[in-house]
Structures are given as structure tokens and as C-alpha cells.
Amino acid sequence: MEEVDKILIHSLRQAGTPVPPEAQSVRDFSPELVVEAAVRCLRAIRPALGAPLSPLLPPGISARFRLASDLAAACQELGFGGDVGYQTFLYSSEHDTRRLLLFLVEKLPRDESERGAEPPGKSGVLLRAIGTRIREQLGIPWVPPACRTPQLQRLQVNFGGGPDPPQLWGANSQLGGLFLGEGGPVGLTPPPPAIWGDIYGSVLGIPMGLTPPFLPPPPQEYVGRKRLRARLRALEPLRQVCPPRPQGPPPGPLDSTWLQEAFGTGGAGGALPKGSRFTRTQHLTHEQVGWGGCWGAGGCFGRAGGGAGGLERGVCRVFWGALMVGTRPPPQVEAEVRQGRLALGAREDALRLKARAVELLPDAQNNMAKLQLVVEASSRRIVSLVGQWERHRGPLLAEYRHLRALRDSAQLESSRRLSEIRALHERSRSAADEARRKEELYKQLVAELEALPRDISRAVYTQRILEIVGNIRKQKEEISKILVDTRALQKEINSLVGKLERTFSVTDELLFKDAKRDEVVRKAYKYLAALHENCAQLIQTIEDTGTIQREIRDLEEQIEGETSAKPPASLDRILSDCRALREENALLAAQARHT
Amino acid sequence: MAEPEAQLLLAVGLIEKDTNGDALWVWCYPSVTAELRSLLLRKCCLTDENKLLHTFVFGQYKRSWFYITTVEVQDSPALKKVTHFSIVLMAKDFNPEKYAAFTRILCRIYLKHGSPVKMMESYIAVLTKGICQSEENGSFLSKDFDARKAYLAGSIKDIVSQFGMETVILYTALMLKKRIVVYHPRIEAIQEFTRTLPALVWHRQDWSILHSYVHLNEEEVEALKACTGYIAGFTDSEVNSRPDLYDVYVNLADSEITISPVVKEAMTMGKLHKEIGQLIVQSAEDPDKSDSQVIKDISLKTKEILATLASLTEVSDGNEKPTLNSEALKQKRFPPATENFLFHLAAAEQMLKI
């Protein structure tokens, strides 16, 4: 019980009821505390029900009464099965209070997280993203706008105005503004062009000198610079692979015409695939032969079927001229040499064949017949050789297959055995575990048995139980006997009553017939009637006595029940409250009469 | 017959699958290198885990053609432990019908006798005389199977009906000697399709670019990469993620043609291609025209284009072949796509100035 109370008090504290620390069990709860606990639980379970109820018990008796009955109605609406009324809160017993509070605590919502309407996921993610961005921005030290790189430009807000498409342009407007000494919002007056050129040049890293004023707006020039940069970028891979050319071969045809062709026809995008394929082929061969990369390029463009055609050939020719002579012959050329040699061999064979044919040509018919015979003979020989080989091969193959089949079946067998062994292992292990567990359990139980108090032996209890059972059986028998007797009695009573009535009516008739003539008979008739009435009264009284005795017995039982359930203290409280209520009623009635 | 049979047939081999589940190379004549043996084991469907049986597959590897016929053995008294077997024929020429018929005959002989000796007799007969007796009282004559018939056996009309105007992409790719990869989960479909593709460039009559059955195996891919332009058929869908292997990717199952970005610039199409495409489609849709007539129409158009190109070439000193005169090309003021195409065609036909 104490544990139950502790859990109950803990749950009530969690629900928001300020349970004082000296209240260790439900017995110590005052009615105010009970009411407050119940209201707070109700509010947690169903806010609609609990909202109109106040957790504080008002001082007035009638208000208290009202609150308690409302609370009881709310509890019943929740589904509390037991008997609940205002008395449960104001004059409650420990048992009832505990039942009610347990019911309410069980009904409390379990999952705190259910109360959140939507998952914290989306908004949480957004918040976290915002937090990281702000943290990021806070992490970078503030840099004056003049010194910001485009990246910082994004992170640190440009107070000059909105995002300008070329960010350099934005940076320059800042720069210009600062140079002119305007700290605040800039972009109002364009600074002198000369400064622009320098600023632009310094930002781009391209040495420029004073450029003519370009108010035609800078973006055009910007695009031009971008194009130049793209060209330079496109030439980079080539520059990387091939060493810087000595000034011997004319630079003209390579640079201008090639660039023009490359970039002029297809636009900036067109050059890159060619360049990239060139570099791709470079990469292909570059790994194998370091220095011979360009040689390989020279060789492999032919392999690529002249795919990029004259352009690459032109380039390669220049590179060939540029590279030093005297490196070792690369594998590509070796492969070509080998192929050439093979072709040569094939041609030599064909030549030999044709020479022989020419030799045999003069005597064509005979030679043809001879050749046919030779061919037939050799084919027969081949067939016989095949037959001989077959005689060896057949049995060998059959044996191989047979052995494979054996091996497979053996494997099957062994795998089966293995699995069986494993299963057996498992079983033995589990049996050992089981045995160990049972051992422990046995030891534990023996220890517990030792620990049990020896004074009261189990036999006494069993004896008592058996006695009680016997008693109950005897009592049942007696009850049934009594019932049987009762029924017999009742039957007798009924039959006697019937006999009585019949006898009375017969006598009545008889006497009534003679009562008109004889005085004595009349008197006898009167006595008969009186007798009948008195007897009837007697019987009635006896019956009443029996009923009253039964009622007495019932009331005595009720009294016993009531006195055992309610301690006499609450009775005093009820009486005092009843008195106070009556006084209040009197007061109110007097007030009503006055007004 | 251009060449005697003896120079065309290279080897014959036998692969068996037995009751143990092993696929073994059991016999060959005269000899097959280990590399080829492992390749052919891969090609014949007996090593596959899935039980699909492909009756006849063919392909090319390093300039020799292989033809494989597979047969399932049922109730043969001569072959007790064998469940399936394949007969492999290596030859130098492309002639699927001839070699299919031949391998079928050999299969039947082997099925009946269970020994390669009888097979050998027929093989030698065909090798030396070009004729052999088949089991059903007929005979197999090599000269019945002409090479030209093999080239024309595919149906160009089916290709056009499947791809419509996109056929011109395939035409362009073939003209420019690009690398075409065809994918379909069934090898028979790939074979049907790819064997007809070289007919689009009939003036070359070059079927050596056809590799109709390739696996994504290192050696095969290396051998493929050694060729400049090819038509390669794959049943493995992984080939889509190998852009280094193709310039044009044909997904035959979904009827989609994708051009690799690397060659997009070379294969830009314009008015000329539209003309060609329309010609192809019209010609193929004509119910009165047979396949060979369609091919003839296409080749006429090709001749026109080559004639145009030839008119722009000149024989310069030192080269035997005529080379393209770029100024003349520019002077003609063709639309840019046509000019681009002619330029690349000249490159493919090796008519560019070195």
C-alpha cells in the first residue's frame, strides 16, 4: 500500500498538485487536497471538463457541496465505475479516495509528446538552419565592405542596396563610395572613370592601365574579360601537358587560327569538347609513358580515326616539332610495327601458296585429281585420329563426371552431417543452460523455504481451511433442510387455511339456516362470527410480529454495516455540517423574508 | 564463293552441361586458345544461372566470328549424363544462316551418335568439299549460302518502323564511323537488330564493325575499345553507365536513342539529315518495296552525298587519296549542320589533309 501511495503522490505532483511533503499516504490527504488533486487531474485528462471547476475548496458549505457534486459528476462522466458523490470528496474514507485517485491518475495522458500538435521536425529543422547560418555569420569577423570577397559579400549583408548581378560590380560601388568618402548608402553618384578602371583591374587581377571611360556600363567589358578568362582556362590543360614551346615554330598559326577555329565556329563551348578529348587522350597515354604523352597523342589520334581531324593533327605536328628527338620508341609505334609484321607474314604465306599453285598449273587435271586424293586421305586420317582421341577422351570424361557426382554427393552428405552436429550442439547447450537455471531456481527456493517463519506451519492453515469448508457444507445442508421444512409448513398452512374457510362457511350456512327460528342458534351464530374474527386477528398479529422481527433483523444488520464502514468521527463531522447547513438555511430564509 | 571454305572455317568445339551442373568444354578441333574458351563458355548460355536457352547466338571477337547452337538433350541413349550441349563454330566471315544450318546438322549428328567422330566427318566434308549429308536425307551445301544474302537477310523495314525518323541518327553515326551500343535484355532481339544496321551504309559492305554479343568483361571491352567505330550489342543494362564505350546508345527495349554529349557537336543534324530521314521513312513505308530496294534507295542517297564530297576534294601532291579542300567546302556555303557533317564524313573516310 505504501508503494502505491508513493507512486500516486508522485504522479499527482507531476500533474501539478502541490502535495505537501508530510503527506506520505492517502490517509493524510485533507479534503482540500483531494479536491485540488482531482480537479488538476481532470484538467489534464479533459480540459473541457476540468476548466469550470476550481481546485480550491470554498469555505461556504453550500458552495463546497456544489463543487463536490460537480466534481463527482465529472468523475462519473469519465467512466469511474464505483460509487462517487459529494461525500467521496468531503467525508471520504481512505479506501474510496485511493480508488478515485488511482482511477484519475491512470486516466492521465501518458505521452507528453502527444500534446505537441505538429511534429517538431519541420519547424525545428528550419530553426536549426537559421541558427547555423547566424552562427556562421557571427563566426566570421566583420570586414569593412571595401575588403570583402564575393563570398563574404553574400554572408555579410550589403548595406548599399540589393544583390547586384555581377558581384564585383557591387563591390566596386562600395569601393567607389568609400573612396569618395561617402560612408552611407552608395550608388548615388558614379565615381570618376579613371578610378573605376584601376578598381576593376585590381579586383580582376588583370593589369590594365587607365582604361577609357566606360560609361557605357561596365558589364560589357566584364563579359569581354570573362570571355578572355574562359579562353585562358581552356588553354590551361594544354599548357599543363606540353612543356612551354621554344620560340622556334611560328606561334602565329597555332594561336590565332586555332583559337579562332576552335572558339569562333562553335562558340566558347565548342572548344572544350575538343580540348577535353585531346586531354582525355592525353590522360589515356600519359600514365603509361610520362614524357611520351604527346607522342602517344600523336599516335592515338590516328587510332581515334582522325575524329577531331585536322585540328589535332596540326597541333600534334607542332608539338612533334617542339619535342626533343631521341626519346625511346613508345609502345604505340611498337604495336604498329608488330601489326605490320603480322600482315607481312600473312602476305608471305599467300605468296607461297600462289607460287605452289602456279607450279602445279601446267598439269592441272592430274594434279587436281592427285590433290583431291591427298585431301581425302588426310581427311580420313584426321577422322581416324579423332576416333582414337575419342577412345581416350570418352572414358576420361565419364570418369571425371562420375567423380564429380561422387564428390557432390559426399559434399551433400558432409554438409548434412555438419548441420546435424550443429543442431546437436545447440540442443546440448540449451539443455545445459536449462539445467543450470533449474539448479539456481532450486537453490533459491530452498533458501526461501529456510527463511520462512517456522512458527506457523502450513498444516494449520490447511486444517482450518478444510474445517471451514466442512462447516460450510454442513450449513448448506441445514439451510436446505430448513427450506424444505419451511415449504412443508407453508403447504400445511395453506391447506389448513383452506380447511378453515370451508369449515367456517359450512358452519355459517348451517347456523344461518337455523338462526332465524331459534334464539340459541342465533347466539351461537354470533359467537361463531366473533370467534372467527378474533382468530383471524390473532393470526394477523402473529404474521405482523414475524414481519417486524425480520425488519428488526435487517435494520440491525444495516446498523452494523454502517458503524463498521464509517468511523464515528465523520459522523460527528456530518452532524456538525448538517447543523451548520440548517443554520445557513435559516439565515437565508430570514433574509428572503426581509427582502 | 569468293573464298574456299577451308580458309573461312577456323574451328569447331563442343560444350556440354552434365547432370552435375558443370558446363565443360569437352572437345574441339583443331584447337581453341584458353582465352577463347573462356569467352565462348561465357557466350553460350549453359553457364548462366538462369535457365534461358538461346538456340542460336553469334558474335565477333577480334575479327573472328563465333556461332553457337545450343540444344537440350532429352531421352538420348547415346548421351546419358548430358543435359544440354552447345556446338561452337569459329569462322572468318559473317554468315549466320549458313552456320546456323551447319551447326544444326552437327547437333543432330551428335545427338544421334553421341560421339564427335561422326561430327568430324561432316565438318571435314564441308571443309574440303563444301557439302555434307544431313540427317533428313538432304544435304547442306555451302554455296547455297551466299555472303550477300547474309548481308541482306535482316529487315531494314522493321528498324524504320521501330524508330521512324530517328533512324537517321543511326545512319549518321554509321557514316561517321561512331561507336553504337545497343541494349536489350534478349540476345535474339539484339542480333536481329544489329545485323541489319550495317546495311544502312551499304557502300562499305563492312560487317566487321558488328559485335553483336558482348559482355561487360574486361578482355572483351578492351578488344572493343581497340576498334574505332563499332556496333556492339549488350544484354547487360549496366552498359548504360559506361559512357566511355559509346557515342550513341540505343535502348532497343524502350526504343530510345541517346547521343553522348561528347559527339553531340559532331552529330548535329540539319536539313540534309531531315531529307535523308524522310527518304528512309518514305521508302520503308512503301508496301511495294522490298527490304533490298529500301537499302538500294538509301545507298543511292549515300552515293549522292559521297559524290558531293568527292567534288570538294582534290588530289594534292604526295597523297594517293583525294583530300578535302576546306576552302571549297566553305565556298559552297552549305548550312552549318551540313558543312559539319561533310567535314566529319571526310574525316571518317580519311580524306582530311594531314
Automatic annotation (TrEMBL), chain A:
Residues 1-109 form the CCDC22 N-terminal domain. It comes from Aquila chrysaetos chrysaetos. GO terms for cellular component: centrosome. This is Coiled-coil domain-containing protein 22. The lineage of its organism: Eukaryota, Metazoa, Chordata, Craniata, Vertebrata. InterPro entries: CCDC22, CCDC22_CC, CCDC22_N. Belongs to the CCDC22 family. Residues 332-564 form the CCDC22 coiled-coil domain. GO terms for molecular function: cullin family protein binding. It comes from the Eukaryota. GO terms for biological process: endocytic recycling; Golgi to plasma membrane transport; intracellular copper ion homeostasis; negative regulation of canonical NF-kappaB signal transduction; positive regulation of canonical NF-kappaB signal transduction; positive regulation of ubiquitin-dependent protein catabolic process. Pfam families: CCDC22_CC, CCDC22_N.
TrEMBL record, chain B:
One of its GO terms (molecular function) is guanyl-nucleotide exchange factor activity. It is found in: Late endosome. InterPro entries: FAM45, Tripartite_DENN. Keywords: Endosome, Guanine-nucleotide releasing factor. Pfam families: SPA. Residues 1-354 form the UDENN domain. The keyword Phosphoprotein does not apply. GO terms for biological process: protein transport; regulation of early endosome to late endosome transport. GO terms for cellular component: late endosome. Belongs to the DENND10 family. PANTHER family: DENN DOMAIN-CONTAINING PROTEIN 10-RELATED, PROTEIN FAM45A-RELATED. This is DENN domain containing 10. It comes from Aquila chrysaetos chrysaetos. The lineage of its organism: Eukaryota, Metazoa, Chordata, Craniata, Vertebrata. The gene is DENND10.
